[in-house]
């Protein structure tokens, strides 16, 4: 009887201990719900980035980019690294105001990586000394985001214009 009582007590204590030591269920790091959570974070960051470009605050915009980021700009070499990003954009903003409207269409996230597909419009309003003419652009973009030190950062940024190249005069050296 004493052994049966001890076994019963041991069983009850084991069950009580096991339930009190339950491990927390790990947070899902993929799937539609996770992607939707990350999309909200990215949309908030995009709002901030748009404001920083419009205000000419390139150092602030740069805080949303990884140190080894690459920005693939149309019709020019890729801008590699955060210092080159800052230098290129500081040069651009001295010629006028850049306004972006970034509209995230979809985010696919898994773990510490997320890919954003979106649509953009861009307007450049030159100042009086600008060698760059006024322009507008619209298109699609892909951005690879990575969670680094607890923050989502742009790793690769690739805008793709929908507008055709400006028509050019025919080359006079061409034979018809």
Short description:
The chain has helices at 2-20, 32-55, 58-62, 82-93, and strands at 65-71, 79-80, 96-110, 113-126, 135-148, 151-161.
| Mean pLDDT reading | 87
CATH class: Alpha Beta
Give the count of helical stretches. 4
Number of strands: 6
- What gross morphology would you assign? elongated
Textual characterization of the structure:
This protein has 176 residues and is an alpha+beta fold. It has a single domain (30-161), classed as Roll (Nuclear Transport Factor 2, Chain: A). Helix content is 34%, strand content 36%. The protein contains 4 helices and 6 strands. The radius of gyration is 26 Å and the shape is elongated. It starts with a helix and ends in a 15-residue tail after the last strand.
List the helices and strands and how they pair.
Layout: H1 2-20, H2 32-55, H3 58-62, E1 65-71, E2 79-80, H4 82-93, E3 96-110, E4 113-126, E5 135-148, E6 151-161
Parallel strand pairs: 1-6
Antiparallel strand pairs: 1-2, 3-4, 4-5, 5-6
């Amino acid at each position: 009887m004493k052994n049966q009582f001890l076994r019963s007590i041991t069983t009850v204590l084991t069950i009580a201990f096991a339930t009190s030591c339950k491990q927390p269920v790990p947070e899902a790091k993929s799937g539609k719900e996770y992607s939707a959570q990350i999309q909200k974070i990215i949309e908030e960051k995009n709002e901030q980035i748009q404001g920083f470009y419009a205000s000419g605050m390139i150092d602030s915009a740069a805080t949303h980019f990884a140190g080894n980021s690459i920005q693939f700009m149309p019709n020019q070499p890729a801008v590699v690294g955060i210092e080159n990003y800052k230098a290129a954009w500081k040069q651009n903003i001295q010629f006028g105001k850049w306004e972006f409207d970034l509209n995230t269409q979809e985010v696919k996230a898994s773990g510490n990586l997320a890919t954003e597909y979106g649509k953009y419009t861009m307007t450049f309003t030159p100042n009086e000394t600008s060698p760059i003419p006024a322009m507008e652009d619209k298109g699609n973009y892909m951005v690879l985001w990575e969670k680094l030190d607890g923050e989502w950062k742009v790793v690769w940024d690739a805008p793709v214009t929908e507008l055709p190249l400006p028509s050019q005069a025919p080359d006079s050296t061409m034979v018809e």
